[in-house]
Fold each of these.
Amino acid sequence: MANLKQAALTIFHETLAAIDIPLSMRRKLGRAGSQIFVNGAPFDLAVFEHICAISIGKASAAMARGLAELLSPDFRAEGIVVAPTVASGLPKGFRAIVAGHPVPNEDSFVAGRAILDLLAATNQHTLVFFLLSGGGSSLVELPLDPGVTLEDMQALHRALVTCGASIDEINAVRKHLSAVKGGRLAVAASVAMKITLGVTDVPEGQESALASGPTLPDPTTILGACGVLLRYDLFPKLPPNIRARFEHPDSIPETPKAGDPAFDSRRATFQILLGRHDLFHAAHHASESAEFITVCDNSTDNWPVEKAVDFLLAQLEALKQANPGKSVAVIADGEVSSPVTGDGVGGRNLAFVLNSVKKIAGRKVAVLSAGTDGVDGSSPAAGAVADGETMGRAQNSGLDPSDFFRRSDSYTFFHSLGDTIETGPTGNNLRDLRIFLAE
């Protein structure tokens, strides 16, 4: 069974290598002389007097490097990179800002001001690349109303993320207070040519959730945002500065919508650089190369962790029954719901594998779940891997997986067994990846 566990780790690491951002940028955009191709349409770099870039998110440094490599040696961009950790090896001409994640901080405000200042200097002869990845919502922030303070925005964030609201509902509220979310960066560079490239951890069709959609028309409304606050009884929990504004929603400017000149297709385009399809393709290829009959399943996104584990193990068993004598694999992506019920160290990926331990005990099965960004919850790990022998090893060490699960201490459990996956921040941010193997 150790071979299955090692095979799962190999598939995960080969998948990470295959979703290399600079490589993907060169492959998907191409370059022919002075032209690059976005969504298949040519853009002539030579017609612009100035090229700048705004790179925001966990993958911001890699995206900036990829853009510089694509443009080199004939063209050069300059701009701003906003990341949650120190970015090394940035191209010449880029200013690095390390800002707050998952909660905005003062440097998030610094980043917001710097970006708006840069965009204010653009004109019809400017090409602006917006390079977006997950985490951007907290990394770049600035209130529309200068009377709203950082402390106000932090208090709003805490109220929203603890009330049970979905990410779409959370975004609907904060977009309407922000000068940089919900299409407002596109408006800030209205007459410039704008190319937005996304490395996305959100499902297809929800691209406006990526970094809170700073360059896309906003589908949410002020009335919808007020509905969220009412639905979760948040008005009493809001800072007075913010509560007063939502109590008089007509005082809040609506976010820009489809039809605004800033989104005119002649001056703005958006392309997913890496997304779910790319993650599945890479993982499927790595699994098939390891001689596993493989299927991909994306139906468990946002499911409770126990339900997702049971469903995917059933899928694995059905695939095994259909292919007797063969090694089989089920690949899944997306996020699962794993409420925190204790004060331990862990995350949803670690919790997912921990919930699997008893269910695969004694079976020739391995389960891996990890974040492609290299970070899982409050832990220093990306995730963990377990197999049919993990339960026995845990019992021999006096570890009860149910107890650790109840205390939300999944990292401590797997770290004690040497089964955590610790990559450090990968500089990427696609979906969580789950790998189920059986023989």
Amino acid sequence: MKCLIIAAGKGRRLQKKGQCKPLIPLYGIALIERTIESALEAGANDFYVVTGHHHERVDAFLQRLSHRLNIPIQTIFNEKWQSTDNGISVLSAAGHLNEPFLLLMTDHVFDPGIARDLIQSAESQGGLTLAVDSHLDNPLVDLDDVTRVQAKQGNIVAIGKDLEIFNAYDTGIFLCTPSIFDALTQASLITGNTGLSNGVELLAATGQAKTFDIDGRFWIDVDDPVAFWRAENALLTRFQQQPDIIPV
């Protein structure tokens, strides 16, 4: 299973922890390495990382990681990395992926079992499946920043940060087919927007955007110092409960 990881942004809100967001250590392990190791545990074995800010540093780190873990990791430089639209980073990989692939964010820390079960259970004939969190009282979620999802009978009805009616959160863990690239291109032409959610909405309109409920399992978007602190506490708690799961 191929895995695409988005790691191009500047991460302005987390710069107090480090100038290069993918390389910021969380309990001594860089965020990008945590994402890759979680994907490995889930069943991915071929990695593509879209870079931008501090491309050279991230690329050098990933080359060393590739050698150390004995896995292929290819970086793809997004020349438009300064855009806040993450769909542009996804589109940067269009020429590299022609089969179903796992799509992850470098700053999301999660239980690898979520991605593993997503791969095993999701349909891959077309479109995409998004792992969603239907526990709306999840204390690790930043309600002011999280992408919201309105889902019905396993299908995405609407997605966006400003949804007023929603019943789940976007965890940033996707199983995609190459149709996401066409959807992002079309969304850009139709609306002028190049966010990942815009492509998902276009697929949802034709019933090609499914949901997979994570059933309360652990995930967190490490996007600012408060989220970083929450992630540290959550990982420490998980390690104390199950020391074989999370290395710290």
Amino acid sequence: MQLGNLVQLLSGGLAMGAIYILIALGLYITHLTTNRVNFGQGDFLMVAAFALLLLRKLDLPLWAAVAGTLALLAVMGWLLDRIALRPLDRKKDSPIGAFPWILTTAGIALILQNVIQLRFGKTSQYSPPLFASQRDQVVQVLGAGLFLEEILVIVAAVLIVALFYAFMFHSRWGKSIQAVAFNPEAAMLLGINTNLVKVGVFVIASVLAAVGGILIGPLVTINPNMGLILTIKGLVVAAIGGFSNPLGILIGGVLFGVFESASNYVDSEFGDLYPLLGALIIIAVKPSGLFGEARSHVR
């Protein structure tokens, strides 16, 4: 493989890996606090991508379209917790265990898919570039022609992930999340509003999905059914890295994204299959993930 092809492969893999990391971090923070998984996380990202597309078609400035998308997803996260999920927590003696939570989040995902499909149709849509002057604008790096959007998406995602880690480990709110995750009853005795923290993490997860939706639009075509596969890949990334280890999620996302890019380079027809098979093997051999034993101090 020539150096130029290798650089292109790594660029595309890191760009998509960054998107998967954002999804996985949203799954991580809600699972950390509630011990539940939001199976609609990828569909929240899909809604964000279409919301940005709609706002930009209305000729709003980019900053206004981005702000509107972030605000919409924040409200959706708040509604998800207050209206759909909190009533389930009041019935902890459910005879079917966690299935109501799974069915509720998956059902909301299906509703979102159908709403977007009614508005935009079933066909894939092209989102205008965020940073470049035109779609597929190329810059030369080490002899390789890289899409400018890919480079800037990687940079933006790295900055956002860095802010997430600073928030989780160096802010008062992040420490409250850790306390609720470790022991909700003890956190209440310390004066922490656990209900506020729980609704807060769903807002944060939804904002992470919004950021992912904003960044993914210029990279791939978007369609109403893209959410499920994104949720699966986010879950895979979290499982590879170790669900309780955010640093492992970061590494897992990079590994999965690059492996996916390489497998599509080798075999474009079944390229998406090989990373999932590899992930299944890793999880079968090491169910806690590659970095599952390296417990983060959030638990």
